[in-house]
Design a protein that fits this description.
It is a single chain. Helix 1 crosses helix 2. The strands form two sheets. Strands 4-5-3-6 form a four-stranded antiparallel sheet, with helices on one face. Helix content is 34%, strand content 26%. Strand 4 and strand 5 form a beta hairpin. By secondary structure, the protein is α+β, with helices and mostly antiparallel strands. The chain has a single domain, classed as Alpha-Beta Plaits (2-Layer Sandwich). InterPro entries: Transposase_17, Transposase_17_sf.
Length: 138
């Protein structure tokens, strides 16, 4: 895919924004099987679509998931994360009753914390250099 093909446009902006998200299960319980991970991916794709985002990549293990999400600048990342975690927790609890035993006290699948990192584009050192050169006369 050509780099320019991934550039999106909004009403007043042009953008390419990606975030790497990691969610960990409450108490790091090892609860996910391949079947659970497949369903989590489906749920999270729907949530991303609702936010006009794209779930570019998804993978996980028995106690965590990794997401690569492309999102528009109008979407606060914290709101997207809260929706991804909240919706997936409720749907998984409803669809997979065997997971409820791992929720016990808090009735939540996910830990309250998460990892979010920006990805893509030039390395930060190149950006520093580029910005510093902008003030120099031609």
């Amino acid at each position: 895919m050509d780099e320019n093909e991934s550039i999106r446009t909004g009403r007043h902006c042009v953008f390419v924004l990606h975030a790497h998200l990691v969610f960990v299960t409450k108490y790091r319980h090892r609860v996910f099987t391949d079947r659970h991970l497949r369903r989590l991916e489906e749920i999270m794709r729907v949530v991303c679509d609702d936010f006009e985002c794209e779930l570019v990549e998804f993978d996980g293990g028995t106690n965590h998931v990794h997401l690569l999400v492309e999102f528009p600048p109008k979407v606060p990342l914290s709101k997207l994360v809260n929706s991804l975690k909240g919706v997936s927790s409720r749907r998984m609890r409803h669809e997979f009753p065997e997971l409820v035993g791992h929720y016990w006290r808090a009735q939540r699948l996910w830990s309250g914390s998460y990892f979010a990192g920006s990805v893509g584009g030039a390395p930060i050192t190149v950006l520093h250099q580029y910005i510093a050169q902008q003030s120099q006369p031609v």
